[in-house]
Write a structure and sequence with these properties.
Blueprint lengths: L1 H16 L12 E8 L4 E4 L2 E5 L10 E3 L2 E8 L6 E7 L3 E7 L4
Length: about 100
């Protein structure tokens, strides 16, 4: 029995070291996570309101958008607007910012 176990041990170790493969599904969307202070800042993508930044913090949801270049704006009363352009393919981007007071 010991010989059997010793004979199989190298095969088991090689199987663990084999490269892993990943399968890409048909979901070709970019994802954006937000860590914004204040969390109630409104998120606009290409001029369309998507909700509050805290909704897309990655713990419960991320904002999915079509691949391509997008303009992202963060707005909150009493704070300066923040605007950036992002190019997304099937990647995930993090926008981490503290908005400046007016």
């Amino acid at each position: 029995m010991l010989r059997y176990i010793l004979a199989l041990a190298p095969a088991f170790l090689l199987a663990c070291a084999a490269p892993r493969t990943s399968v890409q599904t048909g979901d070709q969307s970019g994802r954006i996570r937000f860590q914004v202070d204040p969390g109630y800042a409104e998120v606009l993508v290409d001029g369309k309101s998507m909700g509050k930044a805290r909704q897309f913090d990655g713990s419960s949801a991320v904002l999915k958008v079509e691949p391509g270049t997008h303009t992202v704006v963060l707005k909150a009363d009493g704070f300066e607007d923040y605007e950036t352009k992002l190019y997304l393919s099937d990647t995930e981007e993090l926008i981490q910012i503290k908005l400046r007071s007016k």
